[in-house]
Structure prediction request, 125 residues.
Amino acid sequence: MSRLQAYEMIDQADAGSTFFRVKICPDPEKEDAKRDLLLREITAKTMAIAEKIGKPVTWVAAIHDDHTDKRHVHVLAITKARLLPAQAMIQTATQACREQRKELDLAREQQQEREQEGDEWERER
Prediction:
């Protein structure tokens, strides 16, 4: 989505809509130390809240990873709901980060094992 499209989304929001600013920031030491989490995927999972609040939610997000050591996402959400389920969103984001971290670490370990086996095989020749 372009900046212009985001502005249009804001301008076209229904009367009575509430605008929410949400920040998603994985733990830079425990979850995103390697700066390799898929922040778009985490954001999409976190913002899948329409069913919980019973109202549609339109949102746009920007990933910030260039001006700070702590990669994070800024989200602007628009809905007719008066509140967002903050605790549920925090739990969803945390769980998504931890699951990704496990998957990425496992994939990295498996790759290292394959490389090690290849090195050992080459030395045996």
About this structure: The radius of gyration is 19 Å. The chain has a mean pLDDT of 92. Residues 3-124 form one domain.
